Amino acid sequence: MSNVATTNTKSIVGEPEVVEDGAALAADPAWVELKTAATAVQTVQVKDGSIPEVGDHAAAAAHVATIVASVTTLAPRFPHDAEYLEALVTDLERWARDGFGVPDFLDSLVAFHPEQHRVDGLRHLVVFPMVTQNGSPDRHLEAVLVEVIWPEFIAALEAGDYTNALFVPIRFLDF
């Protein structure tokens, strides 16, 4: 019999106010509406991300309008992503206007550059049609709130021999 005690703890990197601010952002009504609408769109998307059933288009258009309104409301909280968020709104509106074919969000994808702002605690609102990390081969509209983890020791590594200009460690705040 062992006298070793085990303890399970949940570690959170970052200052307490950073974590609290992230919780407040995840509770923002505009984010909650955006996340709910994105989840609703997923239910009518097929494997390639399109919405082929014409009978689903009116509801999908309403959900996309909610997403666009929410992104517009939240955008001032993400000035570092202004170009991306503007392109995202354009991509979403085009997708709906063109009848919800296979989503082409290339313009917003090209405009998204979190690696240009590697600041500890900096948050990003991200919405893309993507294959999720849970192993699903389906391409669905996903909405996530993330926060950059960039403590001094990572900045020091990046400034030295371990450079990767695209590396951005993140913490998921909500999805």
Write the layout of secondary structure elements.
Elements: H1 16-27, H2 29-42, H3 57-74, H4 82-97, H5 106-111, E1 123-131, E2 139-148, H6 152-159, E3 170-174
Antiparallel strand pairs: 1-2, 2-3
Helix pairs in contact: 2-3, 3-4
What can be said about this structure in brief?
By secondary structure, the protein is α+β, with helices and mostly antiparallel strands. It has helices at residues 16-27, 29-42, 57-74, 82-97, 106-111, 152-159; strands spanning 123-131, 139-148, 170-174. A hairpin with a 7-residue loop joins strand 1 (123-131) and strand 2.
Strand order of the largest sheet: 1-2-3
Overall outline: globular
**Roughly what is the average pLDDT, rounded to an integer?**
86
Indicate the structural class: alpha+beta
The unreliable regions are 1-20
Estimate the strand proportion: 5-15%
Give the number of domains: 1
User: What can be said about the biggest beta sheet?
Assistant: 3 strands, antiparallel
Helix content: 40-55%
State the end-to-end CA separation. 43 Å
Total beta strands: 3
How many H/I helical runs? 6
Radius of gyration: 19 Å
Topology as a string of helices (H) and strands (E): HHHHHEEHE
Describe the structure.
By secondary structure, the protein is α+β, with helices and mostly antiparallel strands. It has one domain (16-174). It contains six helices and three strands, in the order αααααββαβ. A hairpin with a 7-residue loop joins strand 1 (123-131) and strand 2. The longest helix has 18 residues, at 57-74. The radius of gyration is 19 Å and the shape is globular.
